[in-house]
Amino acid sequence: MKALVLQRPGPRPQLALKDLPVPQVSGDQILVRVEACGLCYHDVLVMRGVLRRGVKDNVVLGHEISGIVEAVGPEVDDFRAGDPVASIQTDACGRCNRCAYGLEHRCVDGHGIGHGTDGGFAEYVSLRATSLVKLPPELDLTSACLLGCPMGVVQRAIRKVGKVLPGEKVLVTGAGGGLGAHSVQLAKASGAVVYAVTRSYSKVEDLESLGADQVLCVGELDFPEVLLALTEDSGVDVALDTVGSPLFNSTLRCLAQYGRLVLLGEVQGEDVSMALAEIIFRDASILGSSGAGRDDLRSAVELVQQKRVHPVVAQLMPLERWQEAYDTMANGNHMGRFVLTPNWNYP
Questions:
Q1: pLDDT of 28-47, one tens digit each?
Q2: Where are the domains of the chain?
Q3: What is the per-residue pLDDT for 267?
Q4: 163-288, superfamily in CATH?
């Protein structure tokens, strides 16, 4: 099978399209013929060498997977060949306490897909049944790879971590990116009033079409001042921060009394300093949220079926054009998520 292998991480990462054996399945494993796989910023950070801990040597990246079940192990009862499926981010054991409570993404014995175990930038991938969700046949498989991450990830952050209520004000940073574009949609679907922050004027209309009530462009003015003016100095109830350290203190200043800052992404891997009084006198909460369980993925599926949200694909590309997608992501000149597919006519 064709697979995109990370040979050397760094500022200019080296990846190669190689012929690898098709994985064999046993036990509770499932062989999936990959239809599509999203290029997440997590993949970019592994490529750059910013994330190194637990990364498998010569790893096949990619955890945002959709495809068709090709074969199942003898312990698998609820999947069969031909089923359309999508993955969460973790190859979960299904037996530990976290898996039992729907926290498969934080499985004690699991491995990150495309991190500690080979992922979806390949024609086939082998995953445990507890890492997959069966999809309705009418869903487009090319875009269904985004149902777990970023869509399930954001849905978890909104429902279970930030606990957004209808009518609350929600700020989304990095709104034009993969996490951000879906955060805007899903926050709006939850009944929130949505304020979207972007550095690109070209994305304003797109963000409004996704449900943003107000779009704030970074650079012209300090966006907390603009946000506070728009909210009559009250601020927002929840901030979904997909950027992290570069905007952390500005985002913190946007919180209302009892506001919740939910950290979903970190693009630079840098430390931040903060004035503790900003947290204390707001009675604020700072919360981390990463990953999605199968329940979160199913919730995203339901919203897509209801046509309340949709996956935002920046561009579909063959595996061999990974460099183009990587470079464009670094420039930020895209809307949504790049998706790679092995279903191309290779020379």
A1: 999 999 999 999 999 999 99
A2: 2-150+292-341, 163-288
A3: 79
A4: Medium-chain alcohol dehydrogenases, catalytic domain (3.90.180.10)
